[in-house]
Amino acid sequence: MVNLNKIMKYFKHSKIPENILNRGQLVLKNYLKPIKILFEQKNVPTNPWTDEQIEFLLNVLSQMDTDKDMNASQVGEREARIASPLHLKISGGFCHGVGRSGFLTAPQPKAPGGSIMYEITNYLARDIMRNFGLPNIKAAIITPVATGMSLALALTALKPNRNKNDSNTKRTVLIPRLDHNSILKSIDFVGLYPKIVEGKLFGDAVRIPIEDIESGLNENCFAIVSFTSFFPPREADDVKAISKLAERKNLVHIVVNAYGVQSIEWMRLIRSAIDAGRVDAIIQSTDKNFLTPVGGALIASPHEETIEKISRAYPGRASASPVVNFLISILSLGIEGYNKLIKKQQKNRKLLEDLLYNFAKKINERVLDIFNPVAVAMSLQNLTQKKLFELGGALYNLRVTGPRVYDPNQKTFGNCIENYPIPYIVMNAAIGSTKKDIILAVERLEKAYFQINS
Length: 454
Description:
The chain is α/β, with parallel strands linked by helices. The protein has helices at residues 18-41, 51-62, 85-90, 112-131, 147-158, 181-189, 210-215, 239-249, 264-276, 286-290, 304-313, 321-362, 385-397, 435-452; strands at 139-143, 172-176, 193-197, 200-202, 205-207, 221-227, 252-256, 281-285, 297-301, 375-379, 404-406, 424-428. It has a 7-stranded mixed β-sheet with strand order 1-9-8-7-6-2-3, sandwiched between helices. It is globular, with a radius of gyration of 25 Å. It starts with 17 loop residues before the first helix and ends with a helix.
């Protein structure tokens, strides 16, 4: 096998001068050095990698899988056979996927390269979480399904074992009300039952008091799911108080931190919850936090055995594509790049609030007083129900994606409370948004508003 770090020795007696060979070896060594460090340390690199370095890594590892063996005799029913070379590109070359039947992180005999890739990726998942707010986690895994299905996977792994002789096995999950279909479907999907604790109004904000959560417990509850990131008017749960309750009552506690990694404040809540009580798993989206295509999630835990249980609960093998997408994002950003994105997000969030505040003053409305490090809500009390409907359509026609216009008199789902008193619009300044996005969105909101009122 060619040792690329000692390529000079193969040309020792060639006509190429030694000083030229030395220079070439130096350049090649610098190119390969990040890969060497990654294998040795298994940490997120400080500086971003180039696309060429990432592709080189993926190509080298994927060449270890048996579907690349030109001398193999492939007689299995699943040999990573593909119809088009395009499949190689969109899978990063890992056509065998990851895991084995019934064990997501198990090494796969036909995919030694894919197994290495997945192991490294999971180390990087843990490291990125430790670097950005959760030094107290012990393990993490990238799942090949998005946040809702990852919650279902975690609940499946952590629910009590069903006893055939005991029909009273606990099957209820306590949910501080969060109006998102994915959460409710994930619970139903695995044969569990939600017990929803209603939200209450505190000024403009919707919160679920810890006293109400505790009083909502019954003998059938085995778990609590708490939430950090969501749209206004819903604020983050008091995950620290919930973690103490979970420890006291011996309840599984899963935190859905959907797009919370980008927020220092939300991550601080989770860190204090881990230190104060019981947190079994924290689930976050890879696309919302790490700018990957939709399809993956990162599950972290203060307990290695919890991640092992979740890994073993996954049925069958899994696509490597969401894993590769996360790996590509993390290597292309590095710690330095992700730090820059977070700082931009904080500036854009401030800019969004300032612009909406100025616009609200023009039209006799106000920015709602709701703590949310990503989103801003503005009242729309001076619009009729018909105009509220028209505003959403006008924004869509002006090519503004993402805003949410709510009329509580027409639709209560989404407010996390019954009878929220005022209509409003929500805009986000999430990670990856640009200053231009924010300015254009508010300018077009103003245009749409006056357009429907002309």
